[in-house]
Amino acid sequence: MSRRARRAPRFVWLLAALAAVLILIGAGGYYLGNSSQPYRTAPEFPVAEYLATSSSLRGNTYRLTGSVLNSIAWSPAEGRLISVQPAGTDTPIPVVLPVAVSKDGPQKGQRFHFLVEVRDSGLLYVASLTKS
Amino acid sequence: MKNHTLLLLGLLPCIAVAQEPGMGDSQAATGGARPPQMNEGFIGRDVPAFDPGSDVAAFDGKVWNINDNRLFRARFEKYLNSSPATSKADVAYRETIDRILDLISPGKATPQNIEAAFSLLKKASEYKDDANLCRTMSDAIHAARTSLKTVERFKAENAMLEKERKAAEWNNQMAARTSTMGISTSAKDSPVLQENQRIERDARLASTRRVLSDITQTIENNKLRIAATELTTKAHLQALIMQYFATRRFEHVIIANRFYRALYADGDNSIDVYKQMIGTMPTNRDAGQAKINAEFDPKVSAAGGSADGGTAVGTSAGSNGASVGVGQQTQSPGGNAGAFAASGMKMGIENFSIESLTGGAAAAAQTISKLVSSLSQIDSLANEAIRDINEGVEAYKFLLEQGELNSATERLAETFALGEYMPSVRLLSREDKRRALKFTQMKNELLAALEVNDLTRAEKLVGEMSETASDFNTSKPLAKIETAKTMSAMHLSKAKNAALSGDRAAMEAELRAAAEIWPRNPALAEVGNNIFAQTDVQQQALNELDRLIEQGDHRTILRQNAKFIAATALYPDRQEKLGAILAQMTEIEGSLQRAREIQQRGDAAGAWESIQVAAAKYPTDPEINRLRADLASGGAATFVQALSRGGDLEARGEYGAALAWYLDAHRQYPPSQMAQERINALAARILPGSSPDQP
Q1: Cβ–Cβ of A73/B684 closer than 8 Å?
Q2: Residues A98 and A55 in one domain
Q3: Three-state DSSP class for B394?
Q4: Considering the entire predicted model, what is its pTM?
Q5: What is the ipTM metric for this complex?
């Protein structure tokens, strides 16, 4: 009888230690993952809300991640107007790359993290971008 | 001979008096043209003229066709249907007339024969064919004889009075002598004695002169009575003869003429008395008939007188009485003087014939009186007429044998017109006449058909007549028929053109003209119906077009464009509207067609975009809107929605979101021009001065 009692606590402890290791691994991974995405302080760009009524978003800055679809227009003074396909949606979103930002020359199909600012007329201006 | 023929033709008005010459049938036959006979010739209109080329006779300013006269045609047909005058009575009458003619023929006219002929007149008048003409003649001859006896009595009385006048003249001469017995020589020179002797002589002469004047007056009265009686009887007989001639009773003319010669053996055949009477004959020209009244009421007056120095004795006598006067003439040249005057002769004929021949008879009488100067001429004319009539009948029989019915019928008609009562005409067999009758009926029917412009019937009759009569000249009627047909066709053609050009007044006028020329033209009804149906359809189409335009139903107009194009051909204002509508509908239908084709390829967004362009231009077109709605709610829903949302946001000034929707639309349908246009537009707005890049 005493032999069976001595073997049970050892197994519990093993399970507990395993769980603790797994928790530590998960927490570490979560921490490490979040720490690699830029503009974490900016909220995700609300695509649906923007398409419904952009005026309500005016003045806000958002983080937009998506692929460059096309260059729509280009102005030497103003910069470039491109269309971006946000991650998770098919609707292209137009964003203005000011001259200062567009000097890196994003290419079609490249994925970027954009820090965008909603200005007058609901226009999205890229404050900065980071290749994803 | 020429004058004779002319004169005989002058008798033709006798058979056409019930109808105004130149009117009715003849007018149709001449086409209303004024024939040359109506013009004043060198002998005026008083002398009848006959144009054998056209069978037109003219008299007194009026013309008619001797073969184309309703009354004549009726009489001629009646004659052709009648049986020949071969009954017992007819034969007996003929024998009586022939016997009379024989008894008083030249060389046989002895007093006994004349009496026998005179008695036969009463017998002849008993027959119906004579129409009591012989009795009238008998009465006239009897009256003439009685008058002649009266004349003889007056002549005998005058012979006795002449003897008495000679005795009275002797007594007067004796009384005029002054006796100087028992008076001394110195006393003879006494003025007182001379005055006494003159007074005594005048007293003696007064009685003898009165007796002489009475006798002279009686003699003159008797002379006047003789003259008046002779004039009266001669005039009556002459008028009777002329009446027989005017009514074409030529045998009676000859009989009366021979009796006249027997009665008046003085050789005076002049018809001056008749001419004076006929000159006063009144004619009712307005009625186209003559009313002739015979009135011989002579007012004869004579004056005879003798003047001897300063004293004159005169007598005068008249029908109203006699007077004797003695007067003193201071500057008379002396001698005997006589004067004679006759007036008051009138002649008129009223209801001259029960067959209404008065007008013609009057006209003929006046004409004859101008051309004929003696009874011998009348006798000659009557004989000539009889010969001509007999030759006409012979010619008819010969032509009949030759099968030349047209000429035969014309000859018989002419012969009948001249010698209706002559034996040769009356004795013609019914079989001979029936052939002419059939042809005449066809000819009359042809005239009637031409008169009413029944050209179809006329043409058929011409064909039948040319088969019946080998000598029937079809050129004249066929020329008229063909001309009328051509004219009618021309008017119909003009009516069609007028209908096509919308000139309704001209169309109706042309149709009316065509109908007048050929009322039963089969093409008339057909063309008329077509024109009116066409006009009706055209009007209906125009009304429908106006209604559809008002309703905006341009698609129905497009579907029936051929009808409306035809209907509006003559209406420029409607034509312009229709043109604009058809151009618009052609564009709309083209857009629809293109959209449907794109849709059929599975490109709903492309189809929608295609029709949207047309819808922007024609927003009320139901077909566009229907297809547009179908596409917007069907395969192109998300595309349309993207564009729509983009449009809404753009309108609100939310260019960023709007551009996002346009980009979405372009993503769904990359060939979209509308999305591209809006993208470019917004890009230019967002980045002024930018150049577009391909999205």
Answers
A1: yes
A2: yes
A3: helix
A4: 0.45
A5: 0.78
